[in-house]
Amino acid sequence: MMTPEQEVLAAAQGLVNVFGQHNKEAYFAAFAPEATFVFHNVPERLANRAAYESLWAVWEADGFRVLACESTNQLVQLYGDMAIFTHDVKTHVRFGTEEAVSQERETIVFRHQQGGAWLAVHEHLSLHAAN
Questions:
Q1: Are strands 31-39 and 98-112 parallel, antiparallel or unpaired?
Q2: Minimal CA–CA distance to 32: which of 125, 123, 120, 124?
Q3: What is the β-pairing status of strands 31-39 and 118-127?
Q4: Looking at the predicted structure, is the pLDDT value of residue 53 above 80?
Q5: In what residue span(s) does the SnoaL-like domain sit (predicted)?
Q6: Per-residue pLDDT tens over the stretch 38-47
Q7: Burial class (CB in 10 A: 0-12, 13-18, 19+), 33
């Protein structure tokens, strides 16, 4: 049996893995419908998962594809049925014919669901200070 911290780490690693495989269905399934998103490269807060899915579709129409994603320096902080997961993330993407690798820091807030799953309810992505 896993501890809550191990469960959150597994949920976070699963989210990172499917993102790195550009498996958008599994990736978005890791977020609650009411999840919010704050990204350094998007001017406004995305108010829910549907808003992010719409933006993702626009990116894909422009040739967006996630090629790989690596998570390091992970930390889980538990607060009852909520958990804060922070990590450094290295992402390799393609937009059309251009490829780029970004070094970012990310915070994902998870909420424990009935039935035992941890679902992401907020994501905040910022540039790593080394950038």
A1: unpaired
A2: 120
A3: parallel
A4: yes
A5: 8-127
A6: 999 999 999 9
A7: exposed
Measured distance CA(126)–CA(40) in Å, rounded: 5
Cα pseudo-dihedral 38, 39, 40, 44, rounded to 10: -60
Distances (CA, A) of 86 to 36, 76, 126: 16, 7, 11
Distance of CA 89 to the CA centre of its chain: 10
- Residue 88: pLDDT band with limits 50, 70, 90: very high
What are the residues facing 86 on neighbouring strands?
75, 107
Q: What are phi and psi of 71, to 5 degrees?
A: -110, 130
What is the residue range of 15's domain? 4-127
Q: Please name the residue that has the structure tokens 């049925």.
A: 81
- Extract the tokens encoding 46: 């995305």
Read off the CATH number of the domain in which 111 is found.
Answer: 3.10.450.50
Q: How many domains does one find in the chain?
A: 1
Give pLDDT tens digits for 54-67.
999 999 999 999 99
